[in-house]
Amino acid sequence: xxxxxxVIAALSVFAVGWVVIRGASAVSELxxxxxxxxxxxxxxAEGDLTKAERIAPRVAEHAxxxxxxxxxxxxxxxxxxxxxxxxxxxxxxxxxxxxxVAADAVAPVLEVAADMDLASFGFTGSTxxxxxxxxxxxxxxxxxxTLSEADLRAQHIDADATLEPLADAVHKMRDVVAEAATVxxxxxxxxxxxxxxxxxxxxxxxxxAMQNNAELRSSGGIVGSLALLRxxxxxxxxxxxxxxxxxxxxDEPLPLSDSTVALFEDRPGRYMQNITSIPDFTEAGAxxxxxxxxxxxxxxxxxxxxxxxxxxHLVAATGDLTFxxxxxxxxxxxxxxxxxxxxxxxxxxxxxxxxxxxxxxLFSAALTSGEPQQLISALAASADADRIRxxxxxxxxxxxxxxxxxxxxLPVDGERGPYVGVLxxxxxxxKMDFYTRAEISTAVGVCRGEPITQVTVTWRNTAPxxxxxxxxxxxxAGGHYGVDPGDVRTLIAVYGPEGANVRAVDRDGDxxxxxxxxxxxxxxxQHDVLLAPGESTTITVSFDGPGAGDRLTRVQHTPxxxxxxxxxxxxVCG
Length: 574
Fold this sequence. Notes:
Layout: H1 2-45, H2 49-69, H3 73-78, H4 85-104, H5 106-115, E1 123-124, E2 127-128, H6 131-155, H7 164-197, E3 204-212, E4 222-232, E5 235-243, H8 258-264, H9 267-270, H10 281-296, E6 302-307, H11 308-318, E7 321-323, E8 326-328, H12 333-344, H13 348-368, H14 372-384, E9 388-392, H15 395-402, E10 419-426, E11 436-447, E12 450-461, H16 467-470, H17 473-476, E13 488-495, E14 501-507, E15 515-519, E16 522-531, E17 536-544, E18 554-557, E19 565-568
Parallel strand pairs: 3-6, 10-18, 11-19
Antiparallel strand pairs: 1-2, 3-4, 4-5, 6-9, 7-8, 10-13, 11-12, 12-17, 13-16, 14-17, 15-16
Helix pairs in contact: 1-2, 2-4, 2-5, 4-6, 5-6, 6-7, 11-12, 11-14
């Protein structure tokens, strides 16, 4: 018996020493992956492919070594130890993901970089060379598939069960892989969609709708100025400009989905300004196209909706922008568009003229000036924040768009976890959302045996106390829509995971009268909130049933002027 115990003790000491030594080596190799990958990304961004190709083998070697060090049966055995096992599992999974990405995604991306002119991305003035896109589709598809799989596996690592330093590393790795998956996925989608959408097979026309976030709508803001773009074999030009004054209200509303009518009655079908209240851009885009075609007779191939914050990113790439009496920088363009114009020009007709000038100057600058790399980065940053939405009248293209973030469709729950969402729609009738701020948090867990997801929204009116006197009437709406000047009235809709049910609704600690309906397969609760300057309110909606209680729950929300703070809190069962 003593001999047996001695052997077991010796083996245990050996095993512990084995995983300690190999674990330290694995961590060192993963640090090497991080350092080399950062250097390679910088080299690619600078167009130095020779340097990137020299670094790539180092990334692959570090990743392969880390994977090998954490894959033997002794390491896997330690994964079953209570409390500590999750840490060993997390290190192994991180190493495995790094190895797969280095081996199967880095090479295709470098191949793409070698085949495209990174200095110009094929731009010559306002023309884009479409020929290279067909050549890079295959390697981008391979890289995108690898990164999507890696992203899914990374999301399923239970970082909450690991020690804090390792949890931080897992979260960082998730962010890097998710960013890479998004960027490469978008590039692959662009390689497939850009040639036909930019007229390689014949001219295309697109309505561009500028959304004003100072008067919120589900997809960003009220529709303000519009333009018709023409794309012909990669050459892009502005054909026509318009404002919402060119689209008087319809006596007979356009067809709308039941969920849109339940939330907003038939207003999106009557008023051009309200079409972007429609939560699903696959419906909103088609409605915008129909309104334009009815008004001007143009055949529309697609609709692109962008909000005012996109202008900030574009001006950073193109340089200062002059329109009307204003010269805007990337730091001043948003307050000019969403606030100063109203103070300078009380007449809405003059405002429209200035907005049209701003849109024309912005489009012209984007099409003719600025570094292409910076323009692409500006558009990518805007797309990542859901500030660009695209609808196509061509079914095959629309199917691909609807499956991406650019399509603006309602999110689909899946292996990466369920979604919850918050929609903000202004009911003040002015431009008071320049002064609103939001915080959103989720809490997931189990209460009395039932899985629960809670969504909490805090909404603030930060307008000055004397807003009624100090702000222009066009901003406050002057009480014309039943809201006292300076107050903000907002419809706040909170939806849960697909198939989940509304369990409880709370506003500032009390039950509140709300509107409930379905948004496709999601239960949604809509509050009508009225806040005076300096006031705030907190809304909490609890969901149970299918999809509730999932730690992978993610939040979608209306793009605001300032991104809301989004966090995760501990579930407290009431």
